[in-house]
Design goal:
By secondary structure, the protein is of the alpha/beta class. The chain is about 25% helix and about 30% strand.
Length: about 325
């Protein structure tokens, strides 16, 4: 039996997005036709790039420029979209400190949304989760290579930090091996590399190959704010899903993709990418010139990685078997 795993990149529900959320309601952020796709998937995972809380103070680092905090009602947006799990392993999980992170974990747990990549201590931050997608058991693990200051400690909340740029963290291979023992397929979701680059840097490519070598069946990365190409079962960067960010005139971070992977008990069958347009604090399906630009860029990015892409019914398809 074939099932569908949907995954999206950076999902920022603070600042201007939070203002729209409060003013217009939790269903105002994502167009119904996008929600129809996500809700129809057997499993939907995204990178939640903010905390959900009404507490806390901005992280005390004078070099940190951006702080993202969503109100508790943001959880209703996630449940409406059909989100099954989020990774919190990123550089905004602790934007408003430890109390706000703990609130985030609590709000999501109460809504039945699983979390990986952050926790009340190092053990829970590094913990994985196994989720059903139809008849397939998907194991999910979230990690981030920045910032080191957010790393969870044995007695302190934080994120699952893994210095993928300079090291091969000793805790990761046994963690993935243990996850494989209880899952049919393992998905590792790293927050890695620099912002606003249009292709994966060499460190990210090397880290992806290492993750695959130690047992990750799928790698779905994020951080660049623009989507990258895919190579086999490595999606180097999912791009953004919703935000209020300024638009780079060349990189066009307002053009995105929603990724769908069909699976069976033997592994991934095919990847589909659905073109999205990110308006200010609102995401919808891309159309016209937007759609054409996204398709051309994704095809080119994949070709540079040795991957062929087909188009059909407005979607981009990469056979994986």
């Amino acid at each position: 039996m074939v099932c569908t795993l949907a995954f999206a990149g950076d999902t920022m529900l603070g600042r201007g997005v939070a203002q729209r959320l409060i003013a217009e309601g939790p269903r105002s952020l994502i167009a119904p036709e996008v929600r129809e796709i996500t809700a129809d998937a057997d499993l939907f995972v995204l990178n939640l790039e903010c905390c959900i809380s009404e507490r806390g103070q901005p992280w005390p680092d004078p070099a940190k420029r951006f702080f993202f905090r969503a109100p508790p009602v943001a959880v209703e947006t996630l449940t409406w979209l059909g989100v099954s799990a989020v990774t919190l392993a990123n550089n905004h999980a602790l934007d408003f400190g430890q109390d706000a992170l703990l609130d985030t974990l609590d709000h999501l747990a109460q809504a039945g949304i699983h979390t990986v990549g952050a926790g009340a201590d190092q053990a829970t931050a590094r913990a994985s989760v196994v989720l059903p997608a139809g008849e397939v058991r998907v194991g999910l693990l979230g990690i981030t290579d920045h910032p080191r200051a957010f790393a969870a400690q044995p007695d302190r909340p934080g994120v699952a930090y893994a210095d993928l740029r300079h090291d091969t963290p000793a805790w990761l291979p046994p963690a993935i091996e243990a996850l494989r023992a209880g899952a049919d397929l393992t998905l590792v979701s790293p927050h890695w590399g620099p912002n606003m680059v249009d292709a994966p840097i060499s460190d990210v490519r090397a880290a992806a190959q290492w993750l695959r070598s130690i047992g990750a069946d799928l790698v779905a990365g994020h951080s660049a704010h623009v989507f990258h190409g895919v190579a086999g079962t490595v999606c180097y960067d999912l791009g953004d899903f919703i935000d209020d960010y300024a638009v780079h005139p060349r990189l066009r971070n307002d053009l995105g993709l929603l990724f769908l992977i069909t699976l069976d008990r033997h592994g991934p069958v095919a990847l589909q990418a659905v073109p999205l347009a990110l308006d200010y604090c609102h995401t919808r399906l891309a159309r016209g010139d937007e759609h054409a630009r996204i398709c051309a860029r994704f095809i080119r990015a994949c070709r540079e990685l040795g991957t062929d892409v087909h188009t059909a019914d407005g979607r981009l398809t990469v056979p994986l078997r």
